[in-house]
């Protein structure tokens, strides 16, 4: 089995952001997503899908329609999806205290950890750090 890697929300947002401000990041994000879809070793969580929907339809310059966002989410849902439960919420809350991070970042790391991912691709967390056995990689660094 190939090593699994968790993909954070920002990877998907850059992939669809057609505003042109971050063209290089957009191209890199699409390449990364295609690789993990093709190899079937990418993992996301329902949190990633929720955050993507909000950002894609409300927060980027060239917003997607609800239908476009839903179609994109259908496409990325071929990846393994982590469904949080109460144990994950409690574990993430403990990470907040231990690592002094936001709850939402802790939930992303907890999702990566529970799904057996060693790597977490994210622009939002400290590149090269390791939390709970999950190594953070900024694919745009």
TrEMBL record:
It comes from the Bacteria. Residues 6-124 form the PIN domain. Gene3D superfamilies: 5'-nuclease. This is PilT domain-containing protein. It comes from Desulfonatronospira thiodismutans ASO3-1.
């Amino acid at each position: 089995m190939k090593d699994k890697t968790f993909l954070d929300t920002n990877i998907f947002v850059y992939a669809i952001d057609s505003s042109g401000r971050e063209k290089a990041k957009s191209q890199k994000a699409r390449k990364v997503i295609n690789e993990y879809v093709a190899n079937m070793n990418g993992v996301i969580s329902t949190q990633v899908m929720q955050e993507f929907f909000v950002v894609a339809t409300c927060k980027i310059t060239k917003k997607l329609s609800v239908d476009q966002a839903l179609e994109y989410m259908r496409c990325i849902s071929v990846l393994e999806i982590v469904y949080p439960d109460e144990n994950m919420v409690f574990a993430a809350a403990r990470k907040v205290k231990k690592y002094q991070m936001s709850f939402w970042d802790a939930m992303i790391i907890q999702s990566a950890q529970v799904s057996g991912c060693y790597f977490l691709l994210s622009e939002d967390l400290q590149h090269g750090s390791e939390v709970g056995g999950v190594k953070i990689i900024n694919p745009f660094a």
